């Protein structure tokens, strides 16, 4: 009886509160006012805007575009034979490859074929995609003409419809970050990591799962991108982090913090570069000859690359 | 002296193993949810210190590890046969009857099984992470999370009672998702699944997990919560009536949502569990 009375009082007070709250319900809607040019391109106020996701038309072409989008968002599920880590394409290309400043597909599509210093020849877009699987996905490249490649090409082309072919699109890649004021530092990076990144990516950088599915991607270790991926470069990682991390709070880290934490992230072991020659020093000389690659450098007494597991992850074991 | 200490140590070791086993088995709802989905073989966890969130670093397929788990499971079965731990009983008692200090039974509003109440917007507690429940009770008690009902109630709980009641609800099953997720449509689904990046709003599921099932302990489940509750929380952040949460990210994101978007996204997550029996 007492309980019933209590519930009644509670419901009544809730109702009164609800009415009061409703009366003054004028929630402030503070849309972040984008300031700089980069922000405005990012917000879609200017620059290129890809078509909305629900504009994919029915029919065989639309189905291929849709498959490409699904591969992009759930890579391990839809392109499983070619994926050797726990990442998705959309882990780094945010908003399903649509977002300016997060390496959008539409900007890449119109830039290829392109000469790449990484492999010293002109690459088609399809070959570029193969590189993503080999390095960033720590897997193996789908053969040219494979449905996975065709689907990803279709999705990219669909996103880029109306974009000028060959143009250097504003919003391509990650917004380049000015060189750090003081040299990037592992210790400072560790502190930034603990306070800003560990919440999602875990205290040990291994990401988080729920119900067996990866929610927050691992940043290093055997389930992350390998030493051949573009993201292993500290300048690339710093640019990505500054513009996009923490998710929903992009642009809030200082430039210095972004550099420091990028260096910290990339000073951990990850799967071996698939181009490994058998010698870390030689592999560094051939493929990582840059101050922004930590591969082959010694950090906290450890030679990075010296204890990496072979590249390719699960895709190698399944062969 | 040793004759006294030895059995105590043995008992303690037994309890720790049982605790490990309990954590390993985890929350029954998480186990049930796993049946809904195909877990990729390469991501199957073997060991975890947390029930929902499994660190990728801990994959371990070694035989020794498996043996350890069997041992822990066997011991757990034995311990469970002797009765549940005291803390759980204390939590259950508070939930069902309140406290001598005058706290009303949690169940009177949050439901007999902690399932919440869709009509009144009282949130589901069953299956939430214990640290999350504790932090919210602390925020109610301090007034940082403004709520005229919960503040006086939370103030009546002492530390042990807070912990007991949080553990009790954390061990109850989480919400069952309705079979066949509704086809995504409307603004709510778009914000939940794709985000609204032109306003710097990431998809809710990017942090709260697929279907908003939650990523413990910092990203509570959204699926299973009443629409009115979810909407009220977004409004509370917009109005500064709820602590900004880890990194302040939820306050920042909530403020970018229009009132219509907040309602739509709350309705979407509520729709994921509509029609399921409790």
| Oligomerization | heterodimer
- Which residues of chain A form runs of ≥5 with pLDDT under 50? 9-35
Q: Hey, roughly how much beta strand do the residues of chain B contain?
A: under 5%
Can you tell me the overall shape of chain A?
globular
Category by helix and strand content of chain B: mainly alpha
Q: How is the biggest beta sheet of chain B arranged?
A: none
Q: Provide the gyration radius of chain A in Å.
A: 23 Å
Largest interface: A-B, 55 and 59 residues
Name the strands of the widest sheet of chain A in spatial order: 1-2
- The total beta strand count of chain B reads 1
Task: Please provide a brief summary of the model.
The complex is a heterodimer of chains A (319) and B (278). By secondary structure, chain A is mainly α. Chain A is built from 13 helices and 6 strands.
Structure description:
The complex is a heterodimer of chains A (319) and B (278). With 319 residues, chain A is mainly alpha-helical. Chain A is 41% helix and 5% strand. In chain A, strand 1 (114-116) and strand 2 form a beta hairpin. In chain B, helix 6 (130-142) crosses helix 8 and helix 11 (227-238) packs antiparallel against helix 13 (259-271). Chain B is mainly alpha-helical. Chain B has 13 helices and 1 strand. The longest helix of chain B is centred in the N-terminal third of the chain and has 24 residues, at 2-25. Chains A and B meet through helix 1, helix 5, helix 9, strand 3 and strand 4 of A and helix 2, strand 1, helix 11 and helix 12 of B.
Furnish the topology, listing elements before pairings.
The complex is a heterodimer of chains A (319) and B (278).
Chain A: H1 2-23, H2 37-42, H3 60-73, H4 75-78, H5 94-97, H6 105-109, E1 114-116, E2 121-123, H7 125-136, H8 147-159, H9 186-201, E3 208-210, E4 213-216, H10 234-244, H11 255-265, H12 280-287, E5 298-299, E6 302-303, H13 313-317
Antiparallel strand pairs in A: 1-2, 3-4, 5-6
Helix pairs in contact in A: 3-8, 7-8, 9-11, 10-11
Chain B: H1 2-25, H2 28-36, E1 53-54, H3 63-81, H4 86-97, H5 107-110, H6 130-142, H7 150-155, H8 159-170, H9 186-193, H10 205-208, H11 227-238, H12 249-254, H13 259-271
Helix pairs in contact in B: 1-3, 4-8, 6-8, 9-13, 11-13
């Amino acid at each position: 009886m007492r309980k019933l009375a209590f519930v009644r009082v509670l419901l009544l007070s809730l109702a009164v509160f609800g009415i009061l709250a409703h009366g003054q319900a004028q929630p402030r809607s503070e849309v972040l006012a984008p300031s700089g040019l980069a922000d405005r391109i990012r917000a879609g106020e200017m620059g290129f805007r890809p078509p909305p996701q629900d504009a994919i038309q029915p029919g065989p072409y639309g189905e291929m575009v849709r498959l490409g989008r699904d591969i992009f968002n759930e890579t391990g599920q839809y392109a499983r034979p070619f994926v050797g880590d726990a990442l998705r394409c959309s882990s780094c290309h945010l908003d399903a490859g649509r977002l300016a400043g997060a390496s959008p597909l539409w900007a890449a599509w119109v830039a290829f074929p392109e000469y790449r210093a990484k492999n010293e020849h002109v690459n088609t877009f399809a070959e570029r995609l193969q590189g993503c699987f080999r390095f960033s996905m720590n897997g193996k490249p789908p053969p040219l003409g494979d449905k996975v490649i065709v689907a990803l090409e279709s999705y990219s082309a669909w996103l880029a419809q109306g974009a000028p072919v060959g143009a250097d699109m504003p919003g391509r890649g990650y917004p380049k970050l000015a060189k750090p004021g003081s040299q990037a530092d592992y210790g400072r990076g560790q502190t930034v990591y603990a306070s800003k990144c560990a919440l999602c990516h875990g205290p040990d950088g291994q990401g988080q799962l729920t119900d067996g599915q990866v929610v927050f991607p691992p940043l290093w270790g055997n389930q992350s991108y390998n030493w051949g991926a573009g993201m292993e470069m500290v300048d690339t990682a710093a640019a990505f982090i500054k513009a996009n991390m923490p998710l929903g709070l992009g642009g809030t880290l200082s430039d210095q913090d972004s550099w420091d934490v990028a260096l910290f992230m990339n000073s951990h072991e990850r799967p071996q570069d698939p181009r490994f020659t058998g010698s870390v020093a030689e592999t560094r000389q051939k493929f990582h000859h840059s101050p922004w690659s930590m591969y082959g450098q010694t950090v906290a007494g450890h030679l990075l690359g010296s204890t990496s597991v072979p590249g390719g992850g699960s895709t190698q074991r399944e062969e | 002296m040793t004759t006294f200490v030895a059995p105590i140590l043995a008992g303690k070791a037994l309890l720790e193993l049982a605790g490990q086993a309990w954590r390993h088995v985890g929350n029954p709802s998480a186990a049930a949810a796993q049946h809904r989905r195909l877990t990729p073989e390469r991501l199957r966890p073997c060991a975890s210190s947390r029930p929902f969130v499994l660190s990728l670093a801990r994959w371990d397929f070694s035989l020794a590890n498996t043996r350890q788990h069997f041992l822990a499971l066997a011991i757990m079965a034995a311990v469970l046969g002797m009765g549940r731990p005291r803390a759980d009983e204390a939590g259950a008692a508070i939930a069902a009857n309140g406290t001598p200090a005058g706290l009303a039974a949690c169940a009177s509003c949050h439901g007999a099984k902690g399932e919440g109440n869709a009509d009144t917007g009282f949130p589901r507690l069953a299956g939430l992470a214990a640290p999350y429940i504790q932090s919210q009770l602390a925020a109610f008690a301090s007034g940082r999370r403004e709520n005229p009902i919960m503040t006086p109630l939370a103030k009546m709980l002492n530390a042990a009672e807070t912990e007991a009641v949080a553990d009790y609800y954390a061990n109850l099953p989480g919400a069952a998702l309705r079979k066949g997720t509704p086809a995504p449509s409307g603004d709510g689904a778009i914000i939940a699944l794709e985000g609204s990046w032109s306003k710097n709003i990431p998809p809710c599921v990017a942090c709260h997990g697929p279907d908003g099932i939650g990523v413990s302990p910092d990203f509570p489940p959204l699926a299973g919560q009443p629409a009115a509750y979810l909407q009220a929380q977004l409004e509370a952040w917009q109005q500064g009536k709820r602590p900004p949460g880890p990194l302040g990210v939820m306050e920042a994101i909530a403020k970018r949502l229009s009132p219509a978007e907040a309602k739509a996204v709350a309705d979407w997550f509520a729709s994921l569990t509509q029609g399921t029996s409790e």
